[in-house]
Design goal:
Helix content: 25-40%
CATH superfamily of the largest domain: 2-Layer Sandwich
CATH class of the largest domain: Alpha Beta
Order of helices and strands: HEEHHHEEHEEEEHHEEHEEEH
Structural class: alpha+beta
Distance between the termini: 49 Å
Number of strands: 13
Number of domains: 2
């Protein structure tokens, strides 16, 4: 994207669109033109979003959303086609993103950055009657696996050993933590990143972390999904890697990397990055450190 186009998008006074479904339900979409531009840049048209979030096709997902509640009390669900994640936002999350918004847009649209931040594709407010409005965020699903039966592990990583273990979890599709990854890697050699990819990942994470630091955002995680590449059988590593690069360039799969041997596909993204490093997080961090010492 050219610098002129980026500046034109930023200069637009952020206009929001409001849809009144009936007298009791009002939906407001924040900065619709900007998010539409970002979605289309990643190959998702407005029609794609509309079909993915069709209420009739997502009823079951919505009803089960309560089972996916995170520690913050928010809930999320995947769209029926697995392309998007819909998640509630706390007031703190929403305010943090509004502060970050312009810099975030420039950062993820820069061709030099190749950011690993999970993409935000829309922010909405839903008001029902006299109830307090609920904020929703639509994000891209960074674990675009072809078959979930091929998943060998999903990990929420923070680079810490304090309270970073999920005991007794044997389901490879369940999200576990840092110490679980270390434990699993003692039995299986899953992590075989190419040297070139390691350097690229480190550079991209460093740029993302610098952006978040500017806005006092922390407590984010690196989400790692390890998928077995079923096309590995019968193909040489060289041919397989070439095919993967062609597919990656075609579909802009910025969150995917393939192992040196070609047997594993790694899905990497930075998630949960809208948490302020406020007094509550400082106290939490102090108590965790005290407990570990």
């Amino acid at each position: 994207m050219s610098r002129r186009k980026t500046e034109e998008m930023e200069k637009e006074n952020r206009t929001d669109e409001t849809l009144t479904i009936n007298e009791d339900i009002v939906v407001t979409e924040f900065a619709p033109d900007v998010f539409s531009f970002l979605r289309q840049k990643d190959g998702y048209s407005n029609k794609t979003l509309e079909l993915s979030l069709d209420p009739d096709n997502n009823k079951e997902k919505v009803f089960k959303a309560g089972e996916s509640q995170g520690k913050s009390g928010s809930f999320f669900f995947f769209s029926q086609d697995q392309k998007f994640i819909i998640k509630t936002m706390t007031d703190s999350d929403f305010n943090a993103f509004m502060r970050l918004f312009r810099s975030y847009f420039r950062h993820v649209c820069s061709p030099k950055t190749r950011s690993l931040l999970a993409r935000v594709y829309g922010v909405y407010s839903v008001k029902m009657g006299t109830q307090k409005p609920v904020k929703l965020v639509v994000m891209g699903n960074t674990m675009l696996v072809e078959n979930f039966n091929n998943v060998r592990g999903v990990f929420d990583l923070k680079g810490s050993m304090v309270n970073r273990y999920c005991p007794g979890e044997t389901n490879p599709k369940a999200t576990v933590k840092d110490r679980n990854l270390l434990e699993i890697c003692r039995e299986n050699i899953y992590l075989q990143f190419k040297i070139k990819d390691i350097r690229q990942i480190n550079d991209r994470l460093r740029e993302d972390a610098l952006l978040l630091k500017l806005y006092n955002l922390m407590d984010y995680s690196l989400l790692l999904c390890i998928e077995e590449n079923k096309t590995f059988q019968g193909e040489s590593a060289v041919t397989l890697c070439e095919n993967f690069r062609e597919k990656k360039a075609k579909n802009k799969l910025r969150h995917q990397f393939i192992s040196e041997c070609g047997k594993w596909i790694y899905h990497l993204s930075v998630i949960d990055y809208l948490q302020d490093f406020n007094i509550e997080k400082k106290i939490e961090n102090f108590l965790k450190t005290k407990k570990a010492s």
